Amino acid sequence: MFRTNVERRLRQLSDRLRREREELAVVDEQLAHLAGEADDARLRALVSETPVSDHDASTAVRHAEAMRRRRGELAASIERLEAQQDDLLDRLTGTGT
Fold first, then answer.
1. What is the pTM of this model?
2. SS3 state at 50
């Protein structure tokens, strides 16, 4: 019974890891796009020196920062899941401490 529970938990972790890695790939693409937009908006704000362009730049920077935070959260979650998976594999093979 113990082995069955560990195997079931490993399958669940594997599925969750796959989903989070897929989401991380999407977030990486979105972050690259948003960071590029933020850089462009900052440059436009420097050139035009208008309140509207300053607002647009700060908005673009906030969006990019929010995506960076989400990426960090996902990366940390993936790291935790991988550690849990390693622990379960150790239990399953009997090499755990």
1. 0.84
2. coil
